[in-house]
Design brief:
Helix content: over 70%
Order of helices and strands: HHHH
Largest sheet: none
Shape: elongated
Distance between the termini: 36 Å
CATH topology: MetI-like fold
Number of strands: 0
Strand content: under 5%
Radius of gyration: 19 Å
Length: 107
């Protein structure tokens, strides 16, 4: 549901919660707003990449005696790692594209 949130709405919330309390604009407020915009895309991509890991890899690790937490960290995340990194880069590109129009304003 957060994936369709307009950037202006997130910006208003960041201004209300961070800028108004600090009394001045900062990189913290901007980065917090951009991070909120990135979270849904990164989560969705990570979920899909983890689903793509074959069950046979999980079962093989469990058959070798790995505990479930170690299977998740060492087998599943390593296998899905390239897709997770790609999702992070796409999310960063999307956020940069949404905020790019504001970067060229006259000063």
């Amino acid at each position: 549901m957060l994936n369709g949130t307009p950037s202006i709405v997130v910006g208003v919330f960041a201004w209300t919660w961070i800028v108004a309390k600090q009394g001045h604009f900062s990189g913290l407020a901007g980065s917090a707003a951009l991070a909120v915009l990135m979270i849904p895309m990164v989560m969705r991509t990570t979920e899909e990449m983890i689903k793509l890991v074959p069950n046979s890899l999980r079962e093989a690790a469990l058959a070798l005696g790995y505990p479930r937490w170690r299977t998740s960290l060492q087998v599943v995340v390593r296998t899905a790692g390239a897709g997770i990194v790609t999702g992070c880069l796409v999310a960063m590109a999307r956020v940069a594209g949404e905020t790019g129009a504001f970067m060229n304003r006259p000063r």
